[in-house]
Amino acid sequence: MTSDTTTQPSRPTPAPSAAPSAYTSLRRIIASELVKLRTLRSSVWLLVVATAFTVVLGPVLSLGQVLSGADRDVESSAVVSLALAGTSTATLLLGVLGVLFVAGEYAPRAIRTTFLLVPRRPHVVVAKAAALGLVTAVTGLVAVAIAVTVSLVLFSQADIAVGWGSPHVLRVSATTVWYLVGWVVLGRWPAGSPAASSAARPC
Q1: Burial of 102 (0-12, 13-18, 19+ CB in 10 A)
Q2: Cα 112 to the chain's mean position, in Å?
Q3: Number of neighbouring beta carbons within 10 Å of residue 152
Q4: What does the angle CA 166 – CA 171 – CA 173 come to, to the nearest 5 degrees?
Q5: Rounded to whole angstroms, how far apart are CA atoms 172 and 84?
Q6: Using an 8 Å Cβ cutoff, are 155 and 66 in contact?
Q7: Is 200 helix (H, G, I), strand (E, B) or coil?
Q8: How much of the chain is helix, strand and coil, in % rounded to 5?
Q9: Which DSSP state fits 16?
Q10: Interior CA angle at 146 toward 187 and 82, to 5°?
Q11: What's the CA gap between 101 and 43, in Å, rounded?
């Protein structure tokens, strides 16, 4: 006597989805912060004005120095310092940019949504700093390169042999870019501190 039993085909067990790594999550948070930075008019205008001061003020002062009769024995450090004179004002604007970029989310309570979507608050703090630092590094590098290059060309018209290969020029230019990045990161740090984050917790 044969048993009439039918075997049900076994269903394949779905493979567990891999949890996103910390690197991927942080990368996406940084991307979202870059979108915020690009869509805020105040942030864009502050960045544009800071870049304009860096690009314009130094070459204008260099032009005035050349027209007034610059000393041909002027040191390269003095030339590059004059070329980067606009960064003193740019640092103030970038500090304000750092504060507004973070503090701007507290007034409309948008920071609650940010921390709700990203429970890991250190990731939010790091992402905001990375987004600001990345944008400032790119714009600062371009602005410093333009300001120094234009100033060197102006001084060359007065037979002052100073170029990118001269002592201190490349070092001071690179240090200035890092200086700008440091200012914008320090500007956003008080508003993005853990104390400020705890103040935004929903009751």
Answers
A1: buried
A2: 23
A3: 22
A4: 95
A5: 9
A6: yes
A7: coil
A8: 70, 0, 30
A9: P
A10: 75
A11: 7
Q: Which two tokens stand for residue 10?
A: 């076994």
pLDDT tens string 141-161? 999 999 999 999 988 887 777
CA 176 to chain centre: 14
Q: With beta carbons less than 8 A apart as the criterion, state whether 128 and 101 touch.
A: yes
Q: Determine the 3-state secondary structure of 71 from DSSP.
A: coil
For 81-137, how does the pLDDT look when each residue is reduced to its tens digit (9 = 90+)?
899 999 999 999 998 898 888 777 766 666 677 667 777 777 888 888 899 999 999
Calculate ∠ Cα 7-10-14, nearest 5°: 175
DSSP state of 107: T
Judged against a pLDDT cut of 50, whether residue 18 lies above it is answered with no
Residue that wins the pLDDT comparison between 22 and 141:
141
Look up the pTM and report it.
Answer: 0.75
C-alpha to C-alpha distance for 121 and 127, rounded to whole angstroms: 10
